[in-house]
Amino acid sequence: MDAVSRPPLVEMRNIYKSFGGVHALEDVTIDLFPGEVVGLVGHNGAGKSTLIKILSGVYEADRGEIFIDGQPVMIRSPRDARQQGIETIYQTLALADNLDAPANIFLGRELIRAPFSLDEDAMEAASRGVLDRLKIYVPSLRESCANMSGGQRQAIAIGRAIYFNARILIMDEPTAALGPQESRQVGELIRQLKKEGLGIFLISHDLHDVFDYSDRVSVLKNGRLVGTVRAAEVTKDDVLAMIIAGSLPSSGLETPRVPASG
Q1: Helical residues (DSSP H) of 106-235, grouped into ranges
Q2: Residue-wise burial string across 77-97, b where 16 or more C-beta atoms lie within 10 A, e elsewhere
Q3: Which of the two ends of the chain, N or C, has the fewest CB atoms closer than 10 A to its terminal CB?
Q4: In which order are the strands placed within the sheet that holds 22-32?
């Protein structure tokens, strides 16, 4: 199958979701290809979080379909999402600060050497392996996460997802509250994940991040998809116009189902 005709890694098709009388999402369709980053942008209340929570199994859509590798799937819980290789890296990272890197990577899925005995050496070796794969150096894996940099903490959260075979990552504001150096480190992580063929949905209010990392940008406004554009073919002002006014730019509109070149 050639690149153009291959199915997306993920497709969310005609998604609807209401909360009482509030229409959070109306007829939203987006897709994501392997080795691609799709930025999701829009004002608070635009529907980004609701859409991603449907993909991650927190909410069920009222209507619509989800496809993984072209096959329809049912995602009714976070467990269903994980079984499909979908992991979410939240802004808060969901790390236990008092624990070290291996304990966080294997939290809830610890390796057992004997009854009631953790195989700490195996968990440390596996943790070092996944961080090396991400090209992240952490001097001491036995240091508590509370004492690590923001970039290292992001790497541990991502390492946990990668070790358990995530293929689709949802990253929520990955550089929020990080300094320039740590933000660059996260950028390198994203580029490495793309090289490995993972697909990433990136939620961010920072258009600089969106344009630095994304192949395509999907804009939501008032629960509807304004459009999806190729980041290399539009400007930040074009995307701002989509966010604020709900208007489409004259260039950069994607051809349906064309994967990113990078």
Answers
A1: 120-133, 150-163, 180-195, 207-213
A2: eeebbbebbbbbbeeebebee
A3: N
A4: 22-32, 10-19, 63-68, 71-73
Residue (of 259, 253, 187, 193) closest to 218 by Cα position: 253
Category of 24 on φ-ψ map: left (φ > 0), alpha (ψ -120 to 50) or beta: alpha
- What are the two backbone dihedrals, phi and then psi, of residue 118, each rounded to the nearest 5 degrees? -80, 140
Helix, strand, or coil here: 11?
strand
The larger pLDDT score, comparing residue 183 to residue 85, is at: 85
- Range 77-86, long-range pairs (CB < 8 A, 24+ positions): 81/55, 81/56, 81/57, 82/57, 82/164, 84/168, 85/165, 85/166, 85/167, 85/168, 86/10, 86/55, 86/56, 86/57, 86/166, 86/167, 86/168, 86/170
Give residue 224's identity as a one-letter amino acid code: R
Coil, strand, or helix at residue 80?
helix
Grouping H, G, I as helix, E, B as strand and the rest as coil, residue 213 is helix
Is the CB of residue 160 less than 8 Å from the CB of residue 104?
yes
Q: Which of 234, 236, 160, 231 is nearest to 205 (CA)?
A: 236
By C-alpha distance, which of 154, 151, 128, 157 is closest to 141?
Answer: 128
How much is the average pLDDT of 20-27?
A: 94
Element (H, E) at 49: helix 48-55
Could you report the per-residue pLDDT of 232-258, keeping only the tens digit for each? 999 999 999 999 998 887 665 654 444
